[in-house]
From TrEMBL:
Obligatory cofactor(s): [4Fe-4S] cluster
Entry's Gene Ontology molecular function annotations: 4 iron, 4 sulfur cluster binding; cyclic pyranopterin monophosphate synthase activity; GTP 3',8'-cyclase activity; GTP binding; metal ion binding
UniProt xrefs under InterPro entries: Aldolase_TIM, Elp3/MiaA/NifB-like_rSAM, MoaA, MoaA-like, MoaA_NifB_PqqE_Fe-S-bd_CS, MoaA_twitch, MoCo_biosynth_MoaA/MoaC, rSAM
CDD domains in UniProt: Radical_SAM, Twitch_MoaA
Domain Radical SAM core: 25-243
Gene Ontology biological-process annotations: Mo-molybdopterin cofactor biosynthetic process
One Pfam family it belongs to: Radical_SAM
Protein name: GTP 3',8-cyclase
EC number: 4.1.99.22
Amino acid sequence: MSNSTGSIPNDQHLSLNDPLKLVDQYQRHKTKLRISLTDRCNFRCLYCMPEHPVWLNKKEILTFAQLYKFCRVMVQLGITHIRLTGGEPLMRQGVVEFIQHLQQLRALGLQRISMTSNAFYLAPLAHALKQAGLDDLNISLDSLDADHFLHMTHKALQPVLAGISAALEANIALKLNCVLLKGENDQEILNLVHWAYLQQIPLRFIEYMPLDAPQHWQREKVVDEDDIIALVSQHYHVEKQQRQHDPATIYLLNQHYPLGIISTISKPFCLSCNRLRLTANGEFLSCLFSNQGGSLSDLLREPDEQALIQTILSSVWHKPAGYIAHQAAPQRKITMHNIGG
Ligand code: SAM
Ligand code: SF4
């Protein structure tokens, strides 16, 4: 599928039997898909939500049947890893049954089903999610101080900690995600590392990206990877690991604990990006920083799948270089809670 003219792959490349279909003009192969199940969220994280979010009309949200069809086609095209996200994915009723349904795609090549959640509603659902076949869960945790957590998310910390305990009891593989904002939670870096280290739950710090409300992001608010590591190195033996496809750079603390840093801003990793995204209303985003996505909503209603496949392949092929090329916020209305991170 290599094509030095940068043109769209033609029909003869569209067979579902071809193993290398989701590839872009820069020869990046796509194996990971993130699906937003809803744009709604019970949190108002300072770095994610606009102050007055405008929710999608419920009629615009893709049905589970449309989502399943999309996932099936994507797995047939080479996706091996699906992550369910949002908004808050646990606010979508039927999510457990959807995960159960996705199990059928393992026979077609799907290897992992994951979720990213704020964990507020997790405690009563953890066992059912595990039983349904969820492989792993990333939980956002921006502070361990109840007052500060409330300030950052507008919600209480305790149900989130209960959700983490329930997921551990249910034996779901966990990682913690923490977006750092200078002047907000950067004082908690060591506290979070110590806590996660003691519990042996991998923690990843995420650099604040310009994907929240327009004009809100400021470069000065970003806590850079190098500054985090300089601080952590004063307390742990730190060894940087060779970068893999994962967006996080892993640092081994005391030779066994993996601390990850996702440094989109200070060290963009666009050249190895293997991800694609679908918003809750069917916008297909080949890049987190794309100015626009193409809507697949109508195509997902059609019984014939050729036009859908063509559109997907064309959109993937034209995937832009990414943040690395512009180093600026995208010019668009949708923000992080629409996209799902
Ligand atoms: N509600 C779920 C949660 O918070 O985990 C899933 C959706 S959330 C949009 C997915 C991820 O995006 C979370 O880990 C969150 O911390 C991250 N995120 C949101 N806004 C961000 C921003 N402006 N920069 C970097 N990461 C962000
Ligand atoms: Fe909600 Fe997640 Fe955004 Fe926080 S980061 S507002 S929990 S979607």
